[in-house]
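Figure caption, in words: inputs first, then the predicted bound structure.
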Amino acid sequence: MATRRRSFWGWGWEDAALAPDQQAALAAALSARFGRDVTAAPPPRLEDLAMPPPRLDPPASLAPICSQRPYDRASHTYGKGYRDVVRGFRGEFGHPPDVVAFPAAEADVAAVLDWCSSAGAAAVPYGGGSSVVGGVEFTGDGYAGVVSVDTSRLATVLEIDRTSRAARIQAGIYGPALEDDLRPHGLTLRHFPQSFEFSTLGGWLATRSGGHYATNTTHIDDFVESLKVVTPSGVCESRRLPGSGAGPSPDRMFLGSEGTLGIITEAWLRLQDRPRWRASAGVRFQSFESGVEAARAVAQAGLYPANCRLLDAGEAATSAGVGDGSALLVLGFESADHAVEAWMARGLECCADHGGAVPEGVRSTVPARDEDKGGQGGGAVDTWRRCRWP
Ligand SMILES: Cc1cc2nc3c(=O)[nH]c(=O)nc-3n(C[C@H](O)[C@H](O)[C@H](O)COP(=O)(O)OP(=O)(O)OC[C@H]3O[C@@H](n4cnc5c(N)ncnc54)[C@H](O)[C@@H]3O)c2cc1C
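Bound structure (flavin-adenine dinucleotide present):
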């Protein structure tokens, strides 16, 4: 079976790139939208890249887990911010890592960091490479070379504690694989940053990522029970406790550390039962400001909606098909434990107080099939949801 490969310069899979006719259609749509003549340029080809030769080679003991192939060096050069994609699209790969290491065990991570220390090389942790702040790119001076440490082979759910609803999970696991592994247990991490498909648990922890369940528990921090981190001077593992007020929190030090203190190899995380009851509604407002007032009222009512996302008129038109110039509040509730109509009814009252209307009604799934996340219908909320993952 052919293995899918990700684009070395942009977002997504190589085999899912826009076909020439789709590129032409997109260029025509952008031309019409911006009143400028937009034409599609061909994407870069790996064989045309002028990358400098590697400045250092891995020792023989690490060679089996290291790569200097052009594809690996190019695809680990940048994150996925706008300027990264533009530079990648232009074929600018003047500062790729010299070596890409793919550790398959914690001992490999320690060995790679030991080698980097002795060789004077910079080690840059790499999860899914979806950083938008230059976090996986290294351009500093004073090092013998740069080693990108790709954690994607550390991708296993190691242990599940069903009673306490928690799991010990390796940091290199990507979002979809993590949820696939938890699903048979009826559990979910329920952390869905928009980059979910191509980002990893370790990256979420190192950047303090926020999911799109943007009320109540939303940051990855909220789910952490303990961390294990391989640093250049040893392994640091925090204790798994239900809660602690004893002194400074070591986890807090590593959360958001952007790979500067070490490589997170695994974590114990709090999980949730998979939701069974869901209700969603698209609430329209004549002005964005009244939508803001309503969203604030819902948030301050302590209803904790699973979704409370306000789209301005432009986004409502492009991603939810709302053509009447309204702002759209996507309001959703879900629970593994109870029906959610009462919460939705109160949320809609808060919205009505600020002029919110619900022309397409409430969509309820009672109880929802596990895989029914909405998105199948023809309403504005379903249209918006189809643009997103998961
Ligand atoms: C289209 C798009 C949508 C996005 N949506 C969101 C969103 O909804 N919410 C949000 O918060 N962010 C979002 N981001 C930003 C990005 O996806 C997040 O920062 C994500 O957490 C990065 O995860 P990653 O696995 O891709 O990490 P990477 O990009 O590989 O790395 C990010 C940083 O963490 C370090 N790092 C990675 N893995 C480890 C590890 N195991 N140990 C130590 N350090 C490590 C890296 O060195 C780097 O500094 C989005 C980005 C894009 C391109």
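Residues 79-80, 124-132, 135-136, 151, 171, 193-195, 199-200, 202-204, 206-207, 209-210, 258-259, 263-264 surround flavin-adenine dinucleotide (CB under 6 Å).
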